[in-house]
């Protein structure tokens, strides 16, 4: 995708060759009058992206969906990010369905017998009202994260949530993310140093042996099942 749009009145080509920092500045200019929301599950990529946007000094809203099954280390990281980036607004739009109510309605340990429904209730469905209030959705997704993300575009249309979806880190690899995080002293989840390349819910995330923080693997997510994605990023591209 290539766009020749400049909010400054000059012709500027925006495409995948545009340096990430310039691309981020462009998104802030281009969509200044629109409702732009970044979402994050506080993965390493999301933390790096929050830092990249924060550097521009403009208010940005970061929405996260607290599933009520986060690791204590993830809440700790959230608090460190809030402290580090005071002009970024962090908003929890997670489900109000308590684990007890979920168990009453759908049975104990739903994540074991129907993780797709559990993710729908705790992630996919709560995102609809968030995206209904957004025109532009900024994510920290990368193509290299999984085969289902291999065709991700820098700017895309998300059919599931009906918003413009922007992924500035689409071409980055995990090593680059790790270097950025270290060089810029970006807060990250301490679990990455304890064998967790990615961090989701406690019930569905396990450490992956031999994977360093600068390496990526989704093998620890829903391990032992066919499931690889929670369903938030299920929309097909155009
Ligand atoms: S990751 Fe696991 S516990 Fe979390 S919402 Fe999905 S199935 Fe439920």
Task: Write a structural description.
With 238 residues, this protein is of the alpha/beta class. It has a single domain (34-204), classed as 3-Layer(aba) Sandwich (Rossmann fold), CATH 3.40.50. 32% of the residues lie in helices and 12% in strands. The protein is built from 7 helices and 8 strands; from the N terminus they run ββαβαβαβαααβββα. It has helices spanning 20-30, 44-54, 72-84, 99-106, 110-113, 115-132, 174-183; strands at residues 3-4, 13-14, 36-39, 60-64, 88-92, 136-138, 155-158, 163-166. The strands form 2 sheets. It has a 6-stranded mixed β-sheet. The protein has a two-stranded antiparallel ribbon with strand order 1-2. Strand 1 and strand 2 form a beta hairpin. Helix 2 (44-54) packs across helix 7 (174-183). It is globular, with a radius of gyration of 18 Å. The termini are close together. The model has no long low-confidence stretch (mean pLDDT 92). It binds iron/sulfur cluster (SF4).
Keywords:
single chain; Rossmann fold; 7 helices; alpha/beta; 32% helix; binds iron/sulfur cluster; 8 strands
Structural class: alpha/beta
Spatial sequence of strands, sheet with the most strands: 5-4-3-6-8-7
Q: Tell me what portion of residues adopts beta-strand conformation.
A: 5-15%
* CATH 4th-level superfamily: HUPs
N/C terminus separation: 10 Å
Mean pLDDT: 92
- Catalogue the unreliable spans: none
Q: Work out the helix count.
A: 7
Question: Which shape, going by the Cα principal axes?
Answer: globular
How much is the radius of gyration in Å? 18 Å
CATH C-level: Alpha Beta
Q: Got a strand count?
A: 8
CATH topology: Rossmann fold
Domain unit count: 1
Question: Which CATH-level-2 architecture?
Answer: 3-Layer(aba) Sandwich
The SSE string, one letter per element, is EEHEHEHEHHHEEEH
Bound molecules: iron/sulfur cluster
Fraction of residues in H or I helices: 25-40%
Biggest beta sheet summary: 6 strands, mixed
């Amino acid at each position: 995708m290539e766009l020749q749009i400049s909010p400054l009145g000059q012709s500027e080509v925006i495409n995948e060759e545009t340096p990430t920092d310039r691309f981020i500045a462009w998104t802030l200019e281009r969509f200044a009058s629109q409702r732009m929301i970044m979402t994050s599950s506080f993965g390493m990529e999301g933390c790096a992206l929050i830092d990249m946007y924060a550097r521009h000094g403009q208010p940005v809203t970061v929405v996260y969906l607290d599933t009520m099954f986060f690791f204590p280390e993830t809440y700790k990281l959230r608090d460190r990010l809030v402290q580090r980036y005071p002009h970024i607004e962090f908003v929890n739009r997670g489900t109000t369905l308590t684990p007890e109510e979920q168990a009453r309605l759908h049975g104990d340990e739903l994540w074991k017998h129907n993780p797709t429904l559990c993710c729908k209730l705790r992630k996919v469905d709560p995102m609809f009202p968030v995206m209904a209030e957004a025109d532009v959705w900024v994510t920290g997704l990368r193509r290299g994260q999984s085969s289902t993300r291999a065709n991700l575009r820098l700017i895309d249309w998300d059919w599931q949530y009906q918003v413009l979806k922007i992924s500035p880190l689409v071409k980055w690899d995990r090593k680059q993310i790790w270097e950025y995080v270290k060089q810029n002293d970006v807060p990250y989840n301490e679990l990455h140093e304890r064998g967790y390349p990615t961090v989701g819910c406690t019930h569905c995330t396990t450490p992956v042996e031999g994977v360093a923080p600068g390496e990526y693997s989704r093998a620890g997510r829903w391990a032992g099942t066919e499931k690889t994605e929670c369903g938030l990023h299920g929309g097909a591209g155009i």
